[in-house]
Design brief:
alpha+beta, Heat Shock Protein 90, 390 residues, 11-stranded antiparallel sheet
């Protein structure tokens, strides 16, 4: 059962989208999905985010180094193509997915390439996939000497290096966009040390590929400037906030307001998400999702996470309380917050909720979607006008 959202002008589609996406995401064991800009600074933070998550995993150091190496090559591949096609689909067209399931890690990227490069790129990939480890080593050394591979064509030493490092074939696919460009999807597989000989189930890679492409298509169709799903904790916030902040343009004052809204929204996920040790539950630690979009004259920030059903009324009361205050009242309330805390402890809104309402200048929207007898998915949305500030 899905409980109705709060009153007011609500971008209900994205509140629903957050829930729909995370349901599919959890079933496929994605560590995280990122869709947005890929600049030098952002890729550095994505690598730091990956490194932070790998440090918490109970995998060998050798495996972690291998994953990090492949991630670097994948990100370089994305940034190499991004500038040439950003005028066609914008700077947020690429996607990066890290997945851990069936005793393997999978890294999948999707980025736009010019169709004139497809034949050469596919030929290069087929050639690499046909080689064994010794042949790949010799081929890599040969290319280092001759330099015959053109980086402009999209094929290069990085592909050979990934095949050598993972010891597996590079899975790839192309999806038509228009007469000039296509999406190039690349998937690398890194088995856990004890699962090297684990066989694939027939059709698994194609099915998984298709699901990632479907998620990517939805994010593009709904004009999501940035999407991140995964584990939200204090360590990840340090790397995630600069990534989100980099999507925004405007005055310093505007960016400060935006940053504050983002921080409080992500902090809300950390504060209310259920612990992974909760019994009778298959939801990961602080699992959540964050979406950033722009429609007309507003930016929309939508976040979602799993909560215990016992927290629903408390959260509803807090958000209702803040939404019922007029603009001048919310500022007055903020100044006298300590008095309200003393009088009505149970009904007081969290400081994060007050900050989001105050900095955005708009009402907050939320929705609770029941998952089980004990848990629900909580979607929260804030919006901020862009035209006046940018």
């Amino acid at each position: 059962m899905t409980k109705p959202a709060m009153s007011g002008k609500i971008n209900t589609k994205q509140l629903d989208l957050a829930f729909d996406l995370i349901q599919g995401i959890n079933k496929l064991s994605y560590e995280y999905i990122y869709r947005g800009k890929f600049t030098k600074n952002i890729t550095a933070n994505l690598l730091a985010l990956t490194e932070t998550n790998l440090e918490k995993a109970e995998d060998t150091q050798k495996l972690k180094k291998k994953i990090y190496f492949v991630m670097v090559e994948c990100l370089q591949n994305i940034t190499k193509h991004q500038d040439k096609v950003k005028d066609s689909l914008g700077e947020e067209s690429a996607i990066l997915v890290l997945q851990k399931r069936d005793k393997r890690y999978y890294i999948t990227t999707g980025n736009v390439i010019e169709k004139t490069n497809i034949e050469k790129l596919a030929g290069m990939l087929e050639k690499v996939n046909a080689m064994d480890s010794d042949e790949l080593k010799l081929y890599y050394q040969e290319m280092l000497v001759t330099g015959e591979i053109s980086t402009k064509g999209g094929a290069g030493l990085g592909l050979i290096a990934m095949a050598r490092k993972t010891g597996n074939k590079l899975l790839y696919d192309f999806q038509h966009v228009d007469d000039k460009i296509s999406y190039f999807y690349l998937r690398t597989e890194i088995p856990l040390e004890k699962a090297v000989e684990l066989p694939h189930k027939s059709g698994d890679w194609r099915s998984s590929f298709d699901k990632i492409k479907k998620i990517h298509t939805i994010l593009i169709k709904e004009d999501i400037l940035l999407n991140f799903n995964g584990t939200f904790d204090r360590d990840n916030l340090i790397n995630l906030l600069p990534i989100i902040d980099a999507q925004m343009h405007g005055t310093i004052d505007f960016k400060k307001r935006v940053f504050k809204i983002m921080f409080e929204m992500l902090h809300n996920i950390v504060s209310y998400s259920e612990d992974a040790t909760s019994k009778n539950r298959s939801i990961g630690e602080n699992e959540g999702i964050f979406l950033l979009s722009r429609h007309d004259d507003k930016f929309y920030f939508t976040a979602g996470n799993y909560i215990h059903n016992s927290k629903i009324k408390i959260l509803q009361d807090k958000i209702n309380f803040v939404n019922n205050l007029k603009d001048n009242e919310i500022l007055d309330f903020y100044k006298k917050i300590s008095i309200y805390f003393e009088k009505e402890e149970i009904k007081k809104p969290d400081l994060s909720i007050i900050e989001m309402r105050l900095k955005s200048g708009n009402q907050l929207n939320c929705k609770f979607s029941e998952v089980s007898e004990n848990y629900s998915f909580f979607s929260l949305q804030a919006s901020i006008h862009a035209k006046k500030e940018v």
